[in-house]
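Please fill in the sequence for the structure shown.

STRUCTURE ENCODING:
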């Protein structure tokens, strides 16, 4: 016979899932206050205002909550209005602002600082500068540049939001659609990427980069699911779902590149790098090894952001680039993924 918990236990469990009477009254108060604010501010008028006033009276009687009662106001009113709560959860798209010359100069200076930080691969700091610029004057270019920085940090969902905000300010901004396409591509949302690049090309028909990116996305759609990649001779065994796609780069191509392998050999001969890889390997195995592979081909247990921010890795990469600038530039061109036009923020 199956064990059935006592009824009172089920009732207690249900109570914990329901709002308390105090919470219900606070929510009722916020709703009624919102309706009253609509009437007072004349957001609604005429017959609509009269109907809403009648509704407030009916709801006041039904819920036992009265926004005109001072004692209830002190007890039930919360710090944020219902509209403020909603705006915080679902921010409205940015609107154009008439800025003073001083505001424009300040915002443009912050944007230039962000662009310079992007060139130095300091993406977190660049995001801070673009955000400061947006807070002074919301401009489509600033959102678009911040989208590029977010994509560099593989925060592609944030990049999509910024691209959409840029388009809310400038619906004819082709590069914002391109940023969105790149982000969607790296999120493996291929139909959305195709649509974004199609819009970018519609606005800028002569842009060869947009044409190439759109064609690359269509090829990925037509190719269907990627088969498991094969490991290079003597290399690491293939991961479930193939080699990881690091921001759109084919990892198997990287492993077969002589320049990269020579660089990797130099890295591994450095004691600091050996220690860094040992630490990352320990963390990776503690997280369960490879585990499931995400939609972008990267194992879910592999923290790419942590790897890229590792001081030893960054120090070695910067040192190698300083010694071999031509080789690094060649590798960037070779391994640039389809749609990666995020290297150049708008001036």
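FILLED IN BY: designer on duty
SEQUENCE:
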């Amino acid at each position: 016979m199956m064990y059935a918990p006592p009824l009172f236990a089920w009732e207690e469990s249900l109570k914990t899932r329901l709002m308390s009477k105090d919470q219900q009254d606070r929510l009722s108060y916020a709703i009624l206050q919102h309706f009253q604010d609509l009437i007072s501010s004349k957001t609604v008028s005429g017959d609509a205002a009269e109907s809403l006033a009648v509704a407030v009276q009916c709801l006041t009687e039904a819920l036992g909550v009265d926004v005109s009662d001072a004692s209830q106001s002190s007890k039930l009113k919360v710090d944020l209005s219902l509209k403020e709560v909603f705006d915080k959860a679902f921010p409205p798209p940015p609107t154009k602002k008439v800025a003073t010359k001083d505001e424009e100069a300040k915002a443009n200076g912050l944007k230039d600082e962000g662009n310079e930080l992007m060139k130095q691969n300091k993406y977190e700091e660049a995001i801070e500068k673009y955000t400061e610029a947006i807070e002074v004057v919301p401009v489509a270019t600033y959102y678009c540049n911040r989208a590029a920085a977010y994509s560099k940090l593989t925060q592609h969902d944030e990049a999509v939001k910024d691209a959409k905000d840029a388009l809310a300010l400038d619906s004819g901004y082709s590069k914002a659609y391109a940023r969105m396409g790149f982000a969607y591509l790296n999120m493996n949302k291929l139909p959305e990427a195709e649509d974004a690049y199609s819009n970018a090309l519609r606005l800028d028909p002569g842009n060869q980069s947009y044409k190439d990116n759109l064609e690359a996305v269509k090829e990925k759609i037509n190719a269907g699911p990627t088969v498991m990649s094969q490991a290079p001779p003597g290399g690491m065994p293939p991961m479930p779902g193939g080699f990881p796609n690091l921001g759109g780069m084919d990892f198997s191509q990287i492993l077969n590149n002589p320049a990269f392998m020579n660089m990797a050999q130099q890295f591994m001969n450095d004691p600091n790098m050996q220690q860094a890889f040992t630490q990352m390997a320990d963390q990776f195995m503690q997280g369960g090894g490879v585990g499931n592979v995400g939609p972008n081909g990267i194992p879910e247990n592999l923290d790419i952001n942590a790897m890229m921010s590792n001081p030893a890795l960054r120090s070695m990469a910067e040192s190698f680039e300083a010694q071999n600038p031509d080789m690094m530039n060649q590798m960037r061109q070779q391994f640039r993924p389809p749609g990666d036009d995020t290297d150049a923020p708008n001036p």
